[in-house]
Amino acid sequence: MSNEILENQKLELEEEIKKLGYGSLRYSLLKIPAQNRNEWQRRIDYENGKYFVYLLADRESLMGSKKEFNNFEEAKKEFLARLEGTVELNRMYIQAKMPVEYSSPLWDNYN
Length: 111
Hints:
single chain, Imm59, Double Stranded RNA Binding Domain
């Protein structure tokens, strides 16, 4: 796939993330899987003709399942659902007075 197509897909994801107000979340968009790795990061990567959506617990450890997709729209839907789940989960942690994954205005003051 051309870099231009991947760049357009990345821009589409960035616009959707901005629209949803998820800019403070830790995520990586269409990078090489070994690049730009952070703790508690949700990732959508493209490699060898496939999209992969997954979560890192720390910079190297995969947490949960790594889903594979043949098309961008399905991968995008899963990725955005996982971002939404991140917000919901950490808000639940706040309500239960449990430690959150990291600080974000999306849940720091949530009651």
